[in-house]
Automatic annotation (TrEMBL):
The protein's name in its UniProt record: chitinase
InterPro entries according to UniProt: Chitin-bd_dom (IPR002557), Chitin-bd_dom_sf (IPR036508), EGF (IPR000742), EGF-like_Ca-bd_dom (IPR001881), EGF-type_Asp/Asn_hydroxyl_site (IPR000152), EGF_Ca-bd_CS (IPR018097), Growth_fac_rcpt_cys_sf (IPR009030), Methyltransf_FA (IPR022041)
Disulphide-bridged cysteine pairs: C228-C237
Gene source species: Branchiostoma lanceolatum
Enzyme Commission (EC) number: 3.2.1.14
A Pfam family the protein falls into: EGF_CA
Entry-linked CDD domains: EGF_CA
Annotated SMART domains: ChtBD2 (SM00494), EGF (SM00181), EGF_CA (SM00179)
One function term, GO molecular function aspect: chitin binding
Length: 357
């Protein structure tokens, strides 16, 4: 006796509960509109029972309201003699099957509808595995809702019975379980993707490389974070911090003779001054090393990303040349009188031996 009790308890815990939605579509309702109470999952079976004289209609649609296109499955039309499948409400019949007395006004008749992923819509009777009517749609409509109605003055009583698979063990779903008529479906929380039919894996939001300017991406749940390189800010490190904003536009550069440049965050100096080795002070230079303000901008541009001790022609004056230094004190050096810089020879040579390039 004790063993039997244990068995019954185990059965009740394992088997999902059967839930029935019982509704009627009344005689007075001559407007012939669907009730869109039931949801569907593509690939799963839709089952129902109906008791009516004639004209039991099932609608399959992406929307929970009468709209076209939609599938209209009519069972027992034309005085309970024909069944058809349509692709529009009251549209042309795509398939017609003679089904005399398929419905009964005194007893429930059970049916199933299956929609395969290949586009075949099949309609069969409860207890039979073969369909009595089917049609293949090369352009299958999305189906998320099931509607039902009787038509043309026929009273209908409907039973939509379903095992709620979600009521036991969450349907085996790792995250969320959604019950549907004839089936159920597992879904995942935001930031996750379904694997197989029950498991969820977290998405890597860094896959799309959302962080700009060499920022480092951190994968989070349904989100990401960017760790920005110095000088950059914003959700995606897309905004340049203007370091020169501080100290009345001088940033960390010499307050008297410095010139702050935001994009590279470098300091230059006013004419007659040279950048100190600290990178921000401006000091009086030796005669040869004077860089004028316009020259400073041009030199900073040509020296950008050049290794230390690169020699380049002066951009405006070929009686001088430029030494690039990564420590930000690029210098201009004058060639001896009557010589000019030769980039080819990397030295100052007699003016008549070279053209200024
Ligand atoms: Ca179900
Ligand atoms: Ca993630
Ligand atoms: Ca900046």
């Amino acid at each position: 006796m004790k063993n039997l009790l244990l068995l019954v308890t185990a059965y009740c815990l394992l088997v999902p509960t059967l839930e029935c939605d019982i509704v009627d579509t009344g005689y007075s309702d001559t407007r012939y509109r669907y009730r869109w109470h039931q949801s569907a999952v593509p690939g799963s079976l839709i089952t129902f029972e109906v008791k009516a004289w004639n004209d039991a209609h099932i609608g399959l649609s992406a929307h929970n309201g009468d709209s076209n296109p939609m599938y209209e499955i009519l069972i027992g039309g034309w005085g309970n003699t024909w069944s058809v499948i349509r692709r529009r409400k009251q549209g042309p019949n795509l398939v017609e099957v003679r089904t005399p007395d398929i419905l009964s006004p005194t007893s429930y008749r059970g049916f199933w509808i299956s929609v395969s992923s290949y586009g075949t819509i099949s309609v069969g009777k409860q207890g039979q595995t073969w369909s009595f009517m089917s049609w293949w749609d090369r352009d299958l409509l999305p189906i998320r809702h099931v509607g039902y109605t009787t038509g043309w003055g026929s009273t209908g009583y409907w039973r939509f019975c379903d095992y709620n698979e979600c009521s036991r063990n969450n349907g085996g779903c790792e995250h969320n379980c959604r019950n549907t008529v004839g089936s159920y479906r597992c879904t995942c929380r935001a930031g996750y993707q379904i694997i197989g039919s029950t498991y969820c894996i977290e998405l890597d939001e860094c896959d799309s490389n959302p962080c700009s300017n060499d920022g480092t991406c951190r994968d989070l749940t349904n989100s990401y974070g960017c760790d920005c390189k110095p000088g950059w800010t914003g959700v995606n490190c897309q905004r340049d911090i203007n370091e020169c904003d501080a100290n009345a536009g001088q940033g960390h550069c010499d307050p008297n003779n410095g010139i702050c440049h935001n994009s590279s965050y470098r300091c230059w100096c006013n004419p007659g001054y040279q950048l100190g080795t600290d990178g921000h002070s401006c000091v009086s230079p030796a005669r040869d090393d004077v860089i004028d303000k316009d020259d400073a901008i041009a030199i900073a541009t040509i020296c950008e990303n050049q290794p230390d001790w690169t020699f380049l022609p002066h951009p405006f004056d070929c009686s001088m040349y430029v030494q690039c230094h990564q420590t930000w004190n690029d210098t201009v050096v004058s060639c001896p009188p009557s010589t000019t810089w030769s980039q080819e020879l990397r030295s100052c040579v007699s003016s008549d031996l070279t053209t200024c390039t």
